[in-house]
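INFO batch 0412 | record 1 of 1 | parsing
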Amino acid sequence: MVAWDVIGALVTLAGSVFLLLGAIGVARMPDLYNRMQAGTKATTLGNLLTLTGLGILMPSWLPKILLIAVFVLVTNPISSHALARAAHAAGIPLAKGSVKDALDHDREAR
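INFO prediction complete | emitting tokens
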């Protein structure tokens, strides 16, 4: 039983590390779009690892944790995508070093 506690704690710790890295990425990236990507990818993985660790530590919580994990997997990328598209439509510029704007053809069509 103790081994599962250690595994659960390590998986939860790994999730916390990814959440920390996501926060550092948000602080260090040059523009809104890069910050959003760093925050979304790292927090999605961090949340899932943290929830998995909690599921290992508390197996009776597993059904609720699975629902939360599915909700995070669906809503986090979709909301990030919608916010990035809205920011691009509002004219928020990319960083100076950006090579290509894949959505630039949308502006030409208007």
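INFO post-check: The two ends are 62 Å apart (CA to CA).
INFO record closed
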